[in-house]
Design a protein that fits this description.
Catalytic activity: N(6)-succinyl-L-lysyl-[protein] + NAD(+) + H2O = 2''-O-succinyl-ADP-D-ribose + nicotinamide + L-lysyl-[protein]; N(6)-acetyl-L-lysyl-[protein] + NAD(+) + H2O = 2''-O-acetyl-ADP-D-ribose + nicotinamide + L-lysyl-[protein]
Structural class: alpha/beta
Subcellular location: Cytoplasm
Radius of gyration: 18 Å
Shape: globular
CATH class of the largest domain: Alpha Beta
Number of strands: 9
Order of helices and strands: EHHHHHHEHEEEEHEHEEH
Number of helices: 10
Pfam family, one: SIR2
Strand order of the largest sheet: 3-2-1-7-8-9
CATH superfamily of the largest domain: TPP-binding domain
Mean pLDDT: 94
CATH topology of the largest domain: Rossmann fold
Low-confidence stretches: none
Bound molecules: ligand BJW
GO molecular function, one term: protein-malonyllysine demalonylase activity
InterPro entries: DHS-like_NAD/FAD-binding_dom, NAD-dep_sirtuin_deacylases, Sirtuin, Sirtuin_cat_small_dom_sf, Sirtuin_class_III, Ssirtuin_cat_dom
Strand content: 15-25%
Length: 232
């Protein structure tokens, strides 16, 4: 990455499901993606969880079990390398609930849509590590109530750490979006914020996203190829 020679010090990288696709984790909106197999309204809204918690919990049990069998790919590894070697500010804001950035070694990672291994108790508001499955549904380790939900952000809920994300974008010289369709707010608006604040903007994706015209530059290809090419 030749950024430093261009005066780039501070980088914000937004990642979406496409960065994990080559690890074998389903995206949401591509052909055969999760939203073709499950209705969003049935599994990814707070209303769905109230209506049919078992269906929602089964959906996340299935994803949690699957993610644990997957490995980081060259895109995660390249970003971890960049995180390790970049001495300016850097923040990987991921919309993904998987932990493949961390398992590749990245440290500066923020999960704006939550994490698949975390549980959130709706009775006492404490977060904990998720240990059970549907057959062994755990109670909250803090208060003992059977009130755990996946600690993920569903439609209609506020994504996590928005203040920290906007602060990082405000200071960014470069905003890079990797493998996200640009269909979901507020992440889809980050590139406009970055543009307004004077950062360079780059999209790395298999296909152009819905907000592609907002980026200064777009490079198309599989993340496992184009992310290492960009980083190295
Ligand atoms: C590759 C590749 C390869 C494939 N290499 N690339 C009407 C108008 C405007 C807004 C709204 C509206 N009605 C409702 C809203 C708001 C709503 C929203 O955006 N709805 C839209 C559907 C319109 N948003 C919300 O409710 C959010 N909250 C909110 O807005 O709060 C208010 C607020 C206001 C102001 C500031 C802050 C907050 C919450 C959204 C929560 C999204 N939750 C999910 C589930 C998370 C848990 C889980 O994982 O189960 O998050 S939905 C799902 O979509 C998931 C993802 O993180 C998110 C984005 O998906 P992503 O990552 O882009 O995946 P795909 O599949 O869409 O795209 C894959 C991409 O990869 C494609 O581009 C491929 O080309 C590419 N690709 N293979 C590189 N090999």
């Amino acid at each position: 990455m030749t950024g430093k020679s261009n005066g780039i010090r501070n980088i914000v990288i937004l990642t979406g499901a496409g960065v994990s696709a080559e690890s074998g984790i389903d995206t949401f909106r591509d052909g055969g993606g999760l939203w073709e197999q499950h209705r969003v309204e049935d599994v990814a809204t707070p209303e769905a969880f109230v209506r049919d918690p078992d269906l929602v919990l089964r959906f996340y049990d299935m994803r949690r079990e699957s993610i644990q069998t997957k490995q980081p790919n060259p895109a995660h590894e390249a970003l971890a390398r960049l995180d390790r070697e970049w001495d300016g500010e850097l923040l990987i804001v991921t919309q993904n609930i998987d932990d493949l950035h961390e398992r590749a070694g990245a440290k500066r990672v923020l999960h704006m849509h939550g994490e698949h291994l975390n549980a959130w108790c709706t009775a006492c508001d404490v977060r904990s590590r998720w240990t059970g499955t549907l057959v062994d549904r755990p109670d909250c380790p803090e208060c003992g109530e059977p009130a755990l939900r996946p600690d993920v952000v569903w439609f209609g809920e506020m994504p996590y750490q928005m203040d920290r994300i906007f602060a990082a974008i405000r200071d960014a010289d470069l905003f890079v979006s990797i493998g996200t369709s640009g269909a979901v707010y507020p992440a889809v608006g980050f590139v406009q914020n970055a543009n307004d604040l004077g950062a360079d903007t780059l999209e790395l994706n298999l296909e152009r996203s819905q907000g592609s015209h907002w980026f200064d530059e777009t490079r198309l290809g599989p993340a496992g190829q184009i992310v290492p090419e960009w980083v190295d």
